[in-house]
C-alpha cells in the first residue's frame, strides 16, 4: 500500500490509524499471513464516498456543458497536452515539463 501511494510505511500506518479512528476503515487479520492485515472500508464511508463522488462528477459535467464549442476545444487540447507531459516524464530522463505542443 505504501509503495502504491508513494509514501513511507510509517506514513501509511499513521494514515490507516487515522482512518480507523475516524471509523472509515476496519482492520482484520490477514487470512493466510499472520504478519499482514486486511483493511476494509466501512459501509458508511463507502456510501458517503459514492454520494460525494456522484455529486462532484455531476458538477463536472455541468461545468463542461457550459463551455462553448471553442472552449471545449481549447480545454481538450490543454488536457491532451498536459497528459502528454506526464507521458514524457514517464519516458525517462531528458524530458522536461512543458515540452508539449504549442498553442495554435
User: Spatial order of the strands in the main sheet?
Assistant: 1-2
Mean pLDDT: 85
How many domains is the backbone divided into?
2
Beta-strand content estimate: 5-15%
CA-based shape: flat
Radius of gyration, taken over Cα atoms and rounded to an integer in Å = 21 Å
Give the SSE string: HHEEHH
Sheet with most strands: 2 strands, antiparallel
Count every beta strand, where a strand is a DSSP E run of 2 or more residues: 2
**What proportion of the residues is helical, as a percent range?**
55-70%
Structural class assignment: mainly alpha
Quickly count the helices. 4
> What are the segments in which pLDDT stays under 50 over at least 5 consecutive residues?
none
Please report the distance between the alpha carbons of the first and last residues: 42 Å
Account of the 3D structure:
With 104 residues, the chain is mainly alpha-helical. The protein folds into two domains: 40 residues, no CATH class; 37 residues. The chain has four helices and two strands. The longest helix is centred in the middle third of the chain and has 23 residues.
